[in-house]
Design brief:
Blueprint (H helix, E strand, L loop, with lengths): L23 E6 L1 H12 L3 E4 L8 H13 L8 E4 L2 E4 L7 E2 L2 H21 L2 E6 L3 E5 L4 E2 L11 E5 L2 H18 L4 E6 L8 H20 L6 E3 L2 H9 L14 H15 L2 H14 L9 H19 L3
């Protein structure tokens, strides 16, 4: 520890094979993966974020990814009805439709898209949110979302690191057969799940941290770990870096963790280009139908494309 820093600075190190702008990056997991994914998009990377919506539990994440990889399409038996719409227990509630056949069609189309991303992306980032899972009694499998079904249809269970490791490692092994060059990066979400209580959240995060350790320690050539949770809890370590709910990292914290991630996952030239493109991309956040604004948007798009083309 640097005595002059007056805080414990977490050093994430650097990844063995840095992410380049030519690389596709897929992110799956908790809401924190959305934060990092949007930063990558803003920086000019080719990114796919949470194809089946936010999923917190590792086993639920890899279950739907394995379905996509194996090409096992959804059928009517995979859907449940809740509040007048059809949904899948393997996907977030954003995937719902009053027309069951239409939902099946949409889910299967997303499976095909996801399969192509899994088979062709050099990087897959998995963000683990909680080790607490809701097991659907009819199937004895942990779900991605309960969709407000009756509580007695589920059993809330704290999964051990080994129970999660067995499922996640099996998926990674299968993925690496189809995509031998894929690099998996795992991280534990810094968002605290307070509905499980202080002790329940601590137990959950402990199991997730051990899961990530089991995945990366013997397989560092294929899976690496980024310490987002540790940076939030041991580096920032102050409520001024949390949102008003005191559970989610605020924008300042997200920016800081993003910079640490960029230092971990990218070389200097890539970071500089991402920063430059990120500055240009701010124009896309503004909404205007004026001809001048639309012309400026198109000019900026071309400028960004020229920058990306210069790297190939």
């Amino acid at each position: 520890m640097n005595d002059e820093a007056f805080r414990t600075i977490v050093d994430p190190g650097t990844i063995g094979h840095p992410i380049k702008h030519k690389d596709r990056v897929m992110l799956v997991g908790s809401c924190f993966s959305e934060h990092i994914g949007k930063k990558l998009v803003s920086g000019g990377f080719d990114v796919k974020i949470n194809p089946f919506g936010i999923i917190f539990h590792p086993n639920a994440m890899v279950r739907v990814l394995l379905r996509a990889l194996d090409g096992r399409e959804f059928s009517k038996n995979d859907l449940v009805e809740s509040e007048g719409t059809w949904r899948s227990l393997e996907a977030h509630s954003q995937w719902q439709n009053a027309d069951r056949d239409r939902l099946i069609q949409e889910l299967n189309e997303e499976l095909r898209i996801t399969r192509k991303w899994l088979e062709n992306s050099p990087f897959l980032i998995l963000t683990f949110g909680t080790a607490w899972g809701y097991v659907y009694r009819d199937s004895d499998r942990v779900v991605a979302n309960c969709h407000k079904l009756a509580q007695d249809q589920f059993e809330k269970t704290l999964f051990t690191s080994q129970e999660m490791y067995d499922q996640v490692k099996a998926f990674i092994d299968r993925l690496q057969v189809r995509n031998p060059n894929v690099k998996v990066i795992t991280t534990v979400s810094p968002v605290r799940h307070w509905k499980d209580g202080a002790r329940g959240n601590a137990l959950s995060k402990s199991n997730l941290l051990l899961l990530a350790h089991l995945l990366s320690s013997p397989n560092k050539d294929k899976a690496e770990y980024f310490p987002a949770y540790e940076i939030m809890m041991d580096d920032l370590r102050d409520y001024r870096f949390f949102d008003r709910d005191m559970l989610h990292p605020n924008q300042t914290a997200v920016e800081y963790i993003w910079k640490r991630f960029a230092g971990f996952a990218m070389d200097e030239s890539t970071r500089k280009l991402a920063h430059r493109i990120g500055g240009l991309s701010r124009i896309f956040e503004h909404r205007s139908d004026s001809a001048d604004h639309q012309a400026k948007v198109e000019e900026t798009r071309q400028q960004i494309q020229d920058l990306l083309n210069s790297q190939t």
